Each structure stands twice: as C-alpha cells, then as structure tokens.
Structure prediction request, 233 residues.
Amino acid sequence: MNGDEKFLLLRNYDLWCNLDDREYEELNVVHQFIEAKKGDYIYFDSHHLNKLYFVKDGYIKIGFVDEEGNEIIKEIIKEGEIFGQFALEKTNLNGEFAKAYKGNVSLCAFNIEDFEKLLTQKPGLAVKYSKQVGEKLRRAEFRLINMLNKDVRSRLLAFFYHLTLMEGYDGNAVSWSFNNFLTHDDIAKLIGSARQTVTTFINQLEEEGMLQLSRKKIRIPDVKKLEQLVIVT
Prediction:
C-alpha cells in the first residue's frame, strides 16, 4: 500500500478527517505505519517511549506483569483509539506493555514532537484529541471507583453497560448488540475479579435475561433496565 492509500485510510477516522496533504506530510506518517501479528509486542517495559499510536484495525491489549508474573490488563484498545504516550510527555510507562490481541493489527505511530506541532496549528484537531484523552481518563477513573466501591456483580453490570455505550448505543433502542472481542478471563482482569467468579455471574445474568453472550456477539436485551440496575447498585 502506497502513502496516498494509507492517507486515505487514515482520513476515514474523525480525528484525522480535516488534515490537508501538507499537515499529513508533517506527521511523517508514511514511514510509521505498523503491521503486527497476533501476540506481537508493540512495546514492552518501555522507559523512553516517544510515540503516540493510533489503531487503524484490530485490538491492542495494554497491561503490565506483576511481581508474581501475572499479566494484569489495564485496558483493551480497539479501532479508532489511541495509546502510548497520549499525555504527550516522555514519561516512564512503569513496565506497561502493548500487545496485538485477537488477531493482526494495523497502527499509525507518531513522534510526540511532530504531533504537538500539528496540534498547535489545528485547533479543531486539538479539541478532538483532548476529548478522546478525556474519555480515556474517565474510563480509567470509572474502573477504579468501581473496583474500590462495588461488589463483583455490580462491577460486572456497570462494565457491560458502559461497554454498550462505547459500542455506539444510540440511547433509544430497547436492545443493543455488538461484536464480542473479550474472553471471560479478559473481563475478570478488567474488573478486578477471578475468571470463575465472573463466569458464574455472567451465567446468572443470562438466566435473568439481562445478557446474551456468545463467542462472537454480546446482546443486551433491555439497555434501560440494565442502566437502572447500574444506578441503584
């Protein structure tokens, strides 16, 4: 794929749709498109990472390995999202890794300096970027508050509700379905629980008619009912 074709693909995403050719060239994107196979590390325990990444296709698992060698998942990044040094500082990522998950991935990598320069020239892009970073921080805060203050069932209900919102729920439909890219083990790690405990509660929610989960799809039969349960728990 040549540079023009890659640029057209990048312009399909809201964050980049208003870039002109000159601004695109200033990002030096053509030589920083990355293709990675399932299981490949984009970075691992990187202390001097100077890049911001944008996911064009696929999923990225972000996490770290604890002192006992267990993999801890911080978040799973999907198409259209950013990761890496999204605060635009050359800070220590404290042992964080990023790994291609579920299949092959396509990424764009940007040097922080190039991206900062573009943000100063494109206020519209800066606003979109700040909103995306703000959403990442809100999700992190939400997860932390849930783990500190709620039991496993309540955390699981809140997890599926907010996942539904992230997957485009329009606020009007009774039910909502979307692709399932998570295993029970992933969900357990994301909400701070054990896999078997999560499996038990998922089975309960399915029996109660609150959730339909298969290897390929997640369906919430009544989103408003789920929302009310999240509010009261």
In short: The chain has two domains: 3-133, 150-232.
